[in-house]
Amino acid sequence: MHASIAWTAGMPRRHKSEATQYTIRNVPKVVDRALRRRADRQAKSLNEVVVEALARGAGVEHEASEHHDVDFLFESWAEDPAVDRALAEQHAIDEDLWK
């Protein structure tokens, strides 16, 4: 059995638009330390930082960082006086609670 077949045996099939999984070997220690420091500084996972670095290196940083999971919400706001009143009530400060 070829390694590629054995590696994927029993693994769920993914849709073509989903991300691909990599295994990267022989990462120099200096690169590892820099990526881990960046992940700590930015409070991100090492995986997120590595994917961002790969996208920058490949020249597709902006394309890779675009998300479309809530695009349907853009420009969907409808004026509603009842909602405006409810929001105004939420922003009102109850002076008795702050004494």
Number of strands: 0
Q: State the end-to-end CA separation.
A: 75 Å
Report the structural category: mainly alpha
- H-E string: HHHHH
Radius of gyration: 24 Å
What would you call the shape?
elongated
Helical content stands at 40-55%
Question: What's the number of helices?
Answer: 5
pLDDT averaged residue by residue: 80
Largest sheet: none
Low-confidence spans: none
Write a structural description.
Helix content is 49%, strand content 0%. The protein is mainly alpha-helical and 99 residues long. Helix 2 packs across helix 3. The longest helix is centred in the middle third of the chain and has 14 residues. The model has no long low-confidence stretch (mean pLDDT 80).
Keywords summarizing the entry:
single chain; 99 residues; mainly alpha; elongated
Task: Give the SSE layout.
Layout: H1 3-8, H2 29-42, H3 46-58, H4 61-65, H5 81-91
Helix pairs in contact: 2-3
Nutshell version of this structure?
The chain is an all-alpha fold and 99 residues long.
